């Protein structure tokens, strides 16, 4: 009979995810993971199979956490939906002098998605959830009369997702902040209902 585990798997997954986030998948060794989690190699392998299995669990946890946070941030009363959308977009414009750790999702997809179907699937599921949250927020803003009624909410959600990913990528490249805010201005102007 297998012995019960004496550690908190979600917590261990979070500890491992920090290592993968900082170092990337290929540069992370099992020794890095055992040092960060305090578990032996055999315990890690027994719980997660191997480094790849632990990474997939950590990556899925990261995506699930972020999807839940985005959904929470964008949900609410329809009267505040347009303001929530704009705040969300502006939140992706980062301070050019701030330390840049980068996004685990962007790092993982750049490093692995082309050759790892599991990583690609998790990333695709995350982006689908993100787009649904944006679409719902656009629909709420339309209900409040703050976004053009003739816009297809799903199409607007897809456009906003593209803008958001562009803002993050350009921000990491230290693109001028004024230009990024101008992009947000333009996206919000495209959504605006007449007279708003």
Summarize this, please?
With 196 residues, the chain is an all-alpha fold. The protein has a domain at 60-191: Tetracycline Repressor, domain 2 (Orthogonal Bundle). 70% of the residues lie in helices and 0% in strands.
Topology:
Blueprint: H1 9-23, H2 30-37, H3 41-48, H4 51-74, H5 81-91, H6 104-113, H7 117-143, H8 153-172, H9 177-191
Helix pairs in contact: 1-2, 1-4, 3-4, 4-7, 5-7, 6-7, 7-8, 8-9
Your description of this structure?
It is a single chain. With 196 residues, this protein is mostly helical. It has a domain of 132 residues: Tetracycline Repressor, domain 2, CATH 1.10.357. It contains 9 helices and no strands. Helix 6 crosses helix 7, helix 7 packs across helix 8 and helix 8 packs antiparallel against helix 9. The longest helix is centred in the middle third of the chain and has 27 residues. It is elongated and about 65 Å long. The model has no long low-confidence stretch (mean pLDDT 91).
